[in-house]
Specification:
Layout (H helix, E strand, L loop, with lengths): L20 E6 L6 H14 L2 E6 L5 E2 L5 E2 L14 E4 L5 H4 L3 H11 L2 H5 L4 E4 L3 H7 L7 E2 L6 H7 L4 E2 L5 E4 L2 E4 L2 H15 L2 H10 L25 H12 L7 H7 L4 H12 L3 H18 L4 H7 L5 H12 L1
InterPro entries: Class_I_gatase-like, DJ-1/PfpI, Homeodomain-like_sf, HTH_AraC, INH-QAR
Protein name: AraC family transcriptional regulator with amidase-like domain
Pfam families: DJ-1_PfpI (PF01965), HTH_18 (PF12833)
Length: about 325
């Protein structure tokens, strides 16, 4: 199913100046499909953006093996207030040295001035930051990328301020993000900035994206952290806590659900994860409270929604995690 240059969605208006925002996806061979479709769906569902797909080739084969057709040629320039999105690519060593990438890189070099003047916004998803770095677009800016290529980005952009362990980073109109799902988080953040938090929340709920993370959140959130193990009983316990973190789970109740003694569960949890069951549960609750605060609830209601008895208990938990 081909993606067409212009999205059929009804464009809405920017909350600041009542103008349509144009979004341009730079399409290259081996583009990670979800780096395009994830942000594109968020922006489309917000009703606030008009989408275009451009590149040095009229057709590309994506990471999933699907062909994307009807890609428009690289324009000499973009309208003011445009958003340019550079998705990530697989086999970045090979792809970023291809003829198509070299053509795109040369085109990007010509965009430095309008980007630095703030006339356009630049968004890089995952390894898309490497192409931007090659073109010198990240020099002097704070940025990030997927943790597996963060050191490569540092070498590629020695004049940039590369940040570790970030979902995404924004610096003067340049946005860079980590892996695939971080592109969705970043797109939701753009909707929040351009249209408003309420619309971003509506889109997140429609897409069943439960947590809309912010630029200061670490890449490995509590929902993903501590999953780098192979113990099935601990994974079952983590799944139970993740589904109902606001519930008052006792160690005995949780152990019974995974068919272990409470003493054994506590021992293997700390052995494999390095933290206690209580500490893990508390991290999930703090994450929920943070999200509720971002959605506009007061601190007391956010604390109760996350399973804390009071805002004071939430603040104590936050303090423990910062130690």
């Amino acid at each position: 199913m081909p993606l067409t240059p212009d999205c059929p969605c009804l464009p809405a208006r920017d909350k600041e100046n009542n103008t349509v925002r144009d979004v341009w996806f730079l399409m290259l061979p081996d583009t990670v499909l979800l780096d395009v479709t994830g942000p594109a769906e968020v922006l489309k569902q917000s009703g606030a953006f008009r989408l275009h797909y451009i590149g040095p080739e009229a057709q590309v084969i994506t990471s999933a093996g699907l062909s994307v057709n009807h890609i428009s040629p690289l324009p000499p320039s973009l309208p003011d207030s445009s958003i340019l999105i550079i998705p990530g690519v697989i086999n970045s060593d090979r792809t970023l040295s291809s003829l198509a990438s070299r053509i795109a890189g040369h085109w990007l070099q010509g965009l430095q001035q309008p980007i630095r003047e703030g006339r356009w916004q630049l968004v890089c998803v995952c390894s898309g930051a490497l192409l931007a770095a090659q073109a010198g677009l990240l020099d002097g800016y704070q940025c990030t990328t997927h943790h597996s290529i963060i050191e490569r980005l540092r070498r590629q952009a020695p004049l940039a301020q590369v940040k570790d362990n970030r979902i995404f980073v924004e610096d003067r109109g340049i946005y860079t993000s980590a892996g695939i799902t971080a592109g969705i988080d970043l797109a939701l953040f753009l909707v929040s900035e351009q249209v408003g938090p309420r619309q971003a929340m509506i889109v997140a709920r429609e897409m069943v994206v439960y947590f809309r993370r912010g630029p200061e959140d670490p890449q490995l959130s509590p929902w993903l952290r501590y999953r780098n193990h192979l113990h099935p009983a601990i994974h079952r316990a983590q799944d139970i806590l993740s589904r109902e973190p606001e519930a008052n789970w006792s160690l005995d109740q949780l152990a019974g659900r995974v068919y272990l003694s409470s003493r054994h569960l506590a021992r293997i949890f700390r052995e494999h994860l390095g933290i206690s069951v209580r500490e893990y549960h508390e991290q999930l609750r703090v994450a929920i409270a943070r999200q509720r605060l971002q959605e506009g609830l007061g601190i007391e209601k956010s604390a109760l929604a996350a399973g804390f008895s009071s805002a004071r208990q939430l603040r104590r938990a936050q303090s423990r995690q910062q130690e």
